[in-house]
Design a protein that fits this description.
single chain, 6-stranded mixed sheet, D-Maltodextrin-Binding Protein, domain 2, 2 domains, alpha/beta, globular
């Protein structure tokens, strides 16, 4: 046997022996994989997220799909829950095995009322992720200094729509103050036009109070109402002054005589604007989309929009916004926190913002303005993004932010506008309706 063959044979025998030894020796187990936080990673883990399945859910559904395609440490399952049952279902299941790992909430009173002990049932949101959104969004999901939510849907502020043609024909400009609006009402009430369009829905009438109370009393008053300080809330002079101004508008002929028989939306209030019968329309931003659907050419040419006018002498910041701020993802104590927080990062992605804007939403992400040109109504979207970006504070709609505040006094608001009770009687009645008494 040549030397080369002997060497080769020796190497082969050594390799065989090594393989046999390895097969007979105990194996060291490989270290478990970990996620971005260093936590143990389980690719089979699945987190369930509850949310109503309306069209506004598309961006978060797409975000879940993208996350699941790249995540190596678990996935998220979207579970549609009807909007009319989700609140009750959450109250029954939060803190139990039947509850979700995550759910989407308007925040405010609903969020704290749903859980027996929010600080043990909800888990904190990622501070890094939350910083990608406007600060006022975080306020809605913060309890005792801890934020529990990450915005996941568009914002819907209340604004004042106006008919450009009607104002121009009557020598008027869009009002900057309440006094400007009252002066415009005085002019328009002498024409065949309706100065301010309202309808028979209590939540629409509620917007009048939301606007004026904020501009007169500021966010401090709203915060006292949120905290359940019913007496100090209604005894604040801003409540009476706001009601007096609504009575004043009515006395000057601001509203149609038959407003109580006018339905909301496409079947009533909006055609008054799209057919040139109404001059002003107090409504949430969704009203613009609805009017566009009815008559896009007329709306694009004739309907303008401004922030709610300020009140001279009021303490409210004129940049404050009122309406539906956003809906946020809340993480429950059932979820693996590291995986849930990792998912919420997807809500800060450029693609999430693009999906929201192309779907007709106005997301609360700070960088959304960079993609406003993707909207079918870029001028309107840019206006909304500028408005929320400059906002000092975003007051949540009363019937969402403080459920008792809206539902308790709504019937009395109707009586004010029907002329059945005075402003003083309205406030006195509200003081007797303390749900905490």
């Amino acid at each position: 046997m040549t030397t080369r063959k002997m060497i080769a044979s020796g190497i082969a025998l050594a390799m065989t022996a090594a393989m046999m030894l390895s097969a007979c020796s105990p194996q060291e187990s490989s270290a478990p994989s970990t996620d971005a936080t260093g936590d143990t990673c389980d690719p089979n883990l699945e987190l369930v997220l509850w949310r109503p399945g309306d069209v506004s859910a598309t961006p978060i559904k797409n975000a879940i799909e993208r996350f699941n395609q790249t995540s190596q440490c678990g996935t998220v399952l979207f579970e549609e829950v009807p909007s009319d049952t989700i609140d009750e279902k959450l109250r029954m299941t939060l803190g139990t095995d039947q509850g979700p790992d995550m759910f989407v909430s308007h925040g405010g009173a609903h969020l704290w009322e749903q859980a027996s002990d929010p600080k043990t049932i909800y888990q904190p949101a990622s501070t890094e992720v939350a910083d990608s959104f406007w600060p006022w969004a975080e306020r809605l999901t913060t309890l005792d200094g801890v934020n529990y939510g990450i915005p996941s849907s568009g914002t819907e502020p209340i604004m004042l729509f106006y008919n450009k043609k009607i104002l121009e024909e009557n020598g008027l400009q869009p009002p900057k103050t309440y006094d400007d609006l009252l002066a415009a009402v005085d002019v328009l009430s002498k024409t065949d036009k309706i100065p301010i369009v309202i309808c028979n829905q209590a939540w629409v009438l509620l917007m009048l109070w939301e606007w004026l109370v904020d501009r007169i009393g500021g966010e401090q008053l709203w915060e006292s109402c949120v905290q359940g300080e019913w007496k100090s809330c209604w005894e604040n002079p801003a409540m009476l002054e706001a009601t007096q101004k609504i009575v004043e508008l009515k006395a000057h002929g601001a509203f149609a005589d038959n407003w109580a028989s006018v339905d909301y939306g496409a079947g009533g209030s909006e055609p008054l604007m799209t057919t040139g019968k109404g001059a002003f329309y107090l409504m949430g931003s969704w009203g613009y989309t609805s009017m566009l659907t009815a008559d896009p050419d007329y709306v694009k040419e004739n309907i303008g929009f401004i922030k709610m006018p300020e009140v001279t002498g009021g303490t409210g910041n004129p940049t404050n916004v009122i309406g539906n701020p956003t809906r946020s993802v809340i993480i429950t104590n059932k979820a693996k926190l590291s995986l849930a927080q990792e998912f919420t990062k997807e809500l800060t992605s450029d693609q999430f913002v693009k999906d929201a804007i192309t779907g007709g939403q106005v997301p609360t992400n700070k960088n959304a303005v960079d993609f406003a040109n993707l909207s079918e109504t870029p001028e309107f979207t840019e206006f909304l993004l500028k408005t929320i970006g400059e906002a000092n504070y975003f007051t949540q709609s009363w019937d969402v932010g403080v459920t008792s505040l809206g539902s308790t006094v709504e019937p009395e608001m109707e009586r004010v506008l029907l002329g059945e009770i005075t402003a003083e009687e309205f406030v006195a009645a509200a003081l007797t309706m303390d749900p905490n008494a």
